[in-house]
């Protein structure tokens, strides 16, 4: 997969892109992530990419021309751009189902805002998706872009050492993950549940399912409400993720 990022601070990505799983995936050629400086497509000697907003108000707004010029410079034409995502607090909340849809793409283009945001014509003329990572405001879209890149990269074939890990963790079935234990058997009066040492794989699976459901009900009632709603599947099988149209 190829992921391009348009940002005012391409140097910000040096650490996150080089570390751990993501760094190894890049080294192995499983994903290519290239941050691009939006100022490279400014047309004046000061490399100006922002202007005061029409109608007044505090702060500055990122101009539309550099974004369109960057897309044309990278892909030859606006119409040739890959799935393009603006990281913005007003966007759809990023969840595992949406991440899975992005992971099926051959390429992504991420647009990082700054200041008071991006001219609306970029949203209208370039963006296929608007995505938020939570109900709070960051200084810019770079942190959100890094979150999306890591979440997507983990799902690419060959990236994770154990391919079952991606399907056996929080949100994969609309549930939070069950508790995990390792050695020692006892620590400061806290013991590993006996069922996990029983060797009964069916009992272990039932215990894990029960604990995942209990944790989801207690910690994320919003997720549980989706699973327990009128569209939830019949029986004891895993619920399907919400349909995002991906």
UniProtKB/TrEMBL annotation:
Region ranges (Disordered): 222-246
An example molecular function term from Gene Ontology annotations: tRNA (guanine(37)-N1)-methyltransferase activity
UniProt-listed HAMAP family: TrmD
Protein family: Belongs to the RNA methyltransferase TrmD family.
One GO term (biological process): tRNA N1-guanine methylation
Name of the protein this chain belongs to: tRNA (guanine-N(1)-)-methyltransferase
A Pfam family per the record: tRNA_m1G_MT
